[in-house]
Automatic annotation (TrEMBL):
Keyword Signal: no
Residues annotated as domain Flagellar basal-body/hook protein C-terminal: 213-254
Protein's recorded name: Flagellar basal-body rod protein FlgF
GO biological process, one term: bacterial-type flagellum-dependent swarming motility
Organism: Candidatus Nitrohelix vancouverensis
UniProt gene name: flgF
One of the record's GO cellular component terms: bacterial-type flagellum basal body, rod
Domain Flagellar basal body rod protein N-terminal as annotated: residue spans: 5-35
Lineage start: Bacteria, Pseudomonadati, Nitrospinota/Tectimicrobiota group, Nitrospinota, Nitrospinia
Length: 263
């Protein structure tokens, strides 16, 4: 295989991967608290370590007779999630809680603690504050957030203190735990707006400077115009790599045909 052909093919495959990321961002445009993802590419220059599993795995396009150490390719430098703040929209619903600032709610799942910025909550039959999937929100100090709101109005302060009363005389009944994550690169999406901590460096800390806005929800931070623009440029890049592959293939075919005419 021509080395240039492999470089162009690997670059084209990475552009397809980027298209998948963009498509996923657009598909989650209207999902509460969704954070967009992105890819960063880099040129991988030989020589490579044949024993490195990452370098070996990239070799799916290479015939066995081409040295792993001598063929450059386009690789993924970073897959990242953009955790920037999304806009807050007012819903007026008592248990819709928007986070203003760099923080997360904690959610107790059968697989362990998860984190979320999707504050579209409800009360279950046990008076627990839960996600729409029925997963309990964690209270300060641990355990579920219990809200017995029979005959009272639920008020949730910016610091997460939950009170129930008639509006004039309110009694604090619970406190929602808010946390920040020191290194968000260690967070991995786990579906339904949840994040799993996958790294020892993703340290959980108290959420200073983070406030709850009752009756609000955080929109996704996906900008549809930016994503569509990025999609167009990615498609053009993919088409350009296709043309490079076709040009190399045509040149190789012409060279083979010309060999027979020598002499």
């Amino acid at each position: 295989m021509h080395e240039g052909l492999y470089i162009a093919a690997s670059a084209g495959i990475k552009q397809q991967g980027k298209m998948d990321v963009i498509a996923n961002n657009l598909a989650n445009l209207n999902n509460t608290g969704f954070k967009k993802d992105g890819l960063v590419f880099k040129e991988m220059i030989p020589p490579f370590d044949r024993t490195n599993s990452l370098e070996t795995a990239r070799n799916v396009l290479l015939p066995a007779d081409i040295s792993n150490e001598n063929v450059a390719y386009v690789g993924i430098n970073e897959f990242f999630t953009d955790h920037s703040q999304g806009n807050l929209t007012q819903t007026g619903n008592t248990l819709d809680l928007g986070l203003d600032g760099d923080g997360f709610f904690k959610v107790d799942t059968p697989a362990g603690i998860r984190y979320t910025r999707n504050g579209n909550f409800r009360l279950d039959q046990q008076s627990r504050l839960v996600t729409q999937e029925g997963l309990p929100v964690v209270a300060a100090g641990g355990g579920p957030v219990l809200i017995d709101a029979v005959g009272g109005v639920i008020s949730i302060a910016k610091d997460g203190t939950v009170s129930v009363g008639n509006g004039l005389e309110n009694a604090a009944v619970a406190e929602i735990e808010l946390v920040t994550i020191k290194d968000k690169k260690g967070l991995q999406k786990d579906g339904s707006g949840l994040y799993q901590n996958m790294s020892d460096e993703a340290v959980e800390e108290p959420a200073n400077g983070v406030s709850i806005r009752q009756g609000f929800l955080e929109l996704s931070n996906v900008n549809s115009v930016e994503e569509m623009t990025d999609m167009i440029s990615t498609m053009r890049a993919f088409e350009a790599y296709q043309k490079v592959i076709q040009a190399i293939d045509g040149a190789d075919e012409q060279s083979v045909n010309n060999i027979g005419r020598v002499g």
